[in-house]
Amino acid sequence: MPVETRSIRDRSAVGRFPSVTLGFGDDTEDENEKTEKDDVKKENACCRWLRKVCPCCCPQPNDSDLTDTVVTGIDDPDKDDGTNGEKPGTGDNELDELLLKVQSIDLMKSKSGVNRMEHHTNLYQSDNFIIRRGQNFQMWITLSRPFDPSTDELHLDLKTGSLPAVSKGTHVIVPLVQELQGDRWEAAVVKQDDKRIKLSVNSLPTAVIGRYQLTVETNGANGQVVSTHDPANDIYMLFNPWCEDDSVFMDSEEERQEYVLNDIGRIYYGTQDQIGVRTWNYGQFDDGILATCLFVLEKSGTPASGWGDPVSVVRIISAMINSLDDRGVLEGNWSGDYSLGTAPTMWSGSVEILNEYQKNNGTPVKYGQCWVFAGVFTSVLRCLGIPGRTVTNFSSAHDTDVSLTTDVYLDENLEPIEHLNADSIWNFHVWSDCWMARPDLPPGNGGWQAVDATPQETSQGSFRCGPASLTAVRNGQVFLKHDCPFVFAEVNSDKIYWQRNVDGTFSQIYSEKKVVGHLISTKAVGSDERNDITHLYKHPEGSAEERIAVETACSYGSKAEAYSSPTAEDISVEVLMDGEGPQMGGDAELTIVLRNSSSEKRNVTLHSRVSVMYYTGVHKSMVRKDETDVEVLPNEEKTFEWILEYKDYKNQLIDQAALMLTLLGRVKETQQVLATQFSFRLRTPNLIIKPIGKAVVGEKMAVEISFTNPLPQVLKAVVFHVEGLGLLPARKISYGDIGSHASVSLTEHFVPTLPGLRKLLASLDCKQLTQVHGVSDINVEDKSNAA
């Protein structure tokens, strides 16, 4: 009877390999089987013809032993060899024995295994194979027969992105070599155990980061076989700060532990005289966070071929953390109305935000402000392997017209012209620093780079900022990319006061050179202390180097002509605050000091106004306005108290309880202009968190959270927010009302899931009071140790 031909290709290979058929014949089959087969052939003649033309539309039935491989390269069995079609047959079993097929792949991806420990990815709470580029990893491959290096060939095939291409670095073919060289993608057999071979694999330190699909291709004398892709064997490739050839390399192990591996941080806020701090859960190792970070990159729509360059990656992330123009992770809201989402002050970490973004398939999470944008940005940086830290700049300028100065416009009566005063000075602003080499800039500009996800101004058409080299910012080299002018103005711009003339023009009447950029702060390495890094952003205030940097920068700005000779001064004004400053619910007391350095009497008319401010420096409403005439004797230092009563501000405060006192004055005898602004906030109480019972993994425990209302009024609809990495997921507790000056406590139960020193975070939110939070260290014992 005629010999049946069967396709032995997997359907997934259509279009990649030529069609291959083999002849099979077996004269020992009984007649019933022949009759049955003949009937099937008659019934399915069209299918057999279609199978040859288009195997994907009409696959071979019951070909179960060929589902895991794609076979090509076997000699054409239909070729005329002079035997009139009669030639020795080859059975399925014999063919399987001849082909070199992959039966299983073991990436040795256990969290406690050698790969993830050496790659410093053992902290990721995921069973995926997570490694860092530029570093060797090992894997086992089990084959259908022993590997013979003299006749067999093998290579790994890695693909990432939507359109993998070898030329773009998104399709990587890893060859098998005799000896590893270390400067390329390569693999070598380091051990063979019968059918199992152990490979040692090197990757490039410039490799694209992301999720790679892995397949193995083998080639022997009897054909080529491609293993089927198994998502469980996908490789997650990260940046590598431990690799000297990676552009994010950081040589200090202590700094790597802090800026890459620490999943808890501290974020500073308030004013330069009243620095507040809150603990933030970065949670970069939490289950699903790495997948979400890659999801964010994918949502950007940028090609994966650019994901090997950290400069490109951080610019993508900077744009994608905010939702403007690309439906990124967080929607900003500075209105004070957060009824459609979560108040920014309620967030204690990034995990809940990132999980919600992916859960809702890329719908922006409501709401964020600068410290939330920065906290999430730092989480993504550390998760992807880029060293990062969260940075707070006090008295942070927002330059809106690229003048590199902060301009204040006044009318003829020294009243602010509100519609012209677009520039502002935020009480504080929070962004992130990331660490990387900058081969795209002149030598010496690598290291820390400022990046900002808070949407303020556009950069190349998108709301993003950085990376701006801190070295370039410090030296006023604002012509270097990316966004150095904006960052320079934030930390080192001069504040210039302009007065309108009768003809409508403006004259510069005063300048303040030391009001912007103070106490730039980040968490210290290895401790919870505050580390002042102002010196990395600017030279010492007033030094020759600092003035040269300012003049260099402003020469590239839109108001280069603004700099004139300093005005002679013999009267100065200063605002002082005692201790940590006023508390919420009490009167605010400040001290104003006027100093006369001349030998003559001076009469000063001093205008004071206090306003409620958003922490961004945007004016909300004026609370009180006064005018005072002061006589200052020769060489006298005159001090007087300024008091703002609780009843004057109680109904006007917003999120950060921020206020600004503005003093403007003129000296009658000399016409000298005095001007200064002083920002302060009303301190809120902390939540007190007290653990109850012993903390053991898998065993129930509790904490008591205590709070005292500082206000002489009832707090309405109070909500507590509690979370802790390895302790409990984010949890909201609707408490209700808390009476005037009342003390309350509540108890929360939970079961710790991870051992070690953990931090439990709690915050309180209501319409009358925000920015109330607390943290407690909880040392969780492993169950075995506790026993």
UniProtKB/TrEMBL annotation:
Q: Which residues form a coiled coil?
A: none
Tell me how this protein sits in the membrane: Lipid-anchor
Q: Name one Pfam family in it.
A: Transglut_core
Q: Quick one: where's region Disordered?
A: 1-38, 67-93
* Family, similarity comment: Belongs to the transglutaminase superfamily. Transglutaminase family.
Record's function text: Catalyzes the cross-linking of proteins and the conjugation of polyamines to proteins. Responsible for cross-linking epidermal proteins during formation of the stratum corneum. Involved in cell proliferation.
User: What name appears for this protein in its UniProt entry?
Assistant: Protein-glutamine gamma-glutamyltransferase K
Q: Organism classification, top ranks? A: Eukaryota, Metazoa, Chordata, Craniata, Vertebrata
